[in-house]
Write the structure tokens for this entry.
Amino acid sequence: MSDLPVLQTSFATLALARMPVTRGDTLQAFDAADEYLLNHVHTLALPPNCRALVLNDSFGALALSLAQHCPVTSSGDSYLAEQGLRYNQQHNGLGASSVEFVPACDRWQGPFDLVLMRIPKTLSLLEEQLIRLHGQLAANATVIATGMVKHLPRSAGDLLERYLGPVQASLAQKKARLLFVTPQAKGPFISPYPSRYRLEQPALELRNHANVFSREGLDIGSRAFLPHLPRNLGNARVADLGCGNGVLALVCALHNPEAQFSLFDESYMAVQSAAENWRLCHGARQAEFHVNDGLSGVAPGSVDVVLCNPPFHQQQVVGDHLAQRMFQQAHKALRVGGELWIVGNRHLGYHAKLKRAFREVSLVASNAKFVILKARK
């Protein structure tokens, strides 16, 4: 634990790791916004037996700091963030019951005296969370949001004001800012989520909960991939890795009625959306749905085909590190002769990266922006 970055605030001193734990990772599990928020909260006169709700905590920095002082419920949409919370909880010697985690697809139970939130990258998730806060705040509740200035759009403050009450921004400190909210009697509100859009070919309606990638319409990578998905798979075991709303598996399953599908994503709302869409599209046909760190824990050699439209960001961090890790996981899960099918931006050079691990890599199709590749183990 001693080699982990240390978050030191007025509440606690914690050694915190990011998930997944990676050798030589130079990124931290916390930032100046966490420090600013915690040090400010420590100056407040919180009520006895204060109940706290923490939203969108990255890897437990906020929840674990507060947990030694009051009961804490933490809620967010990232399985990796939840795993980070549990990992850091254990490695800092905190009891397993010190923080209750509630996935974003489930409801938390108030009333809460203190609500602390990181402004998420996807503002539709923030909107859904603010709608769910209706009726969950105690009288005179304290509500504070935070983020790094470069990640705090004006529309986040507009949402806080619309659903909760007036917002006062702090001065910036180490490029971080606090947003103080004065809750007022508002609502009730009707959530606009899940949203829906239709595909023309094949004709499908897709439901998308608030934090699903490309929630308003099919992303251009998947659009390029759909006409080239594998066919004639027989009873193959197919994994949709990073499934989002499940569109790749849904369409592939239409062409492969005997194949067995498992869908994986680290977003609770993505897996919730994928499961609902599968039932709408395929009725009683069986499939498995997993909120997971990619294919981590899947038995080696147990999969015949992996479909993947890899992401290029984790929260605010951009890069191909997640894609590389997904390729490694796919290689391990595939049987010898099994195939990984991916779509990717041409400039990312996935062909060369896949060749390092797979026996054969071939180009299935391409356009000006994307390539569809098949890598055989």
About this structure: Residues 313-319 have pLDDT under 50 and may be disordered. Residues 268-282 form the longest helix (15 residues). The domain at 6-181 is CATH 3.40.50.150 (Rossmann fold).
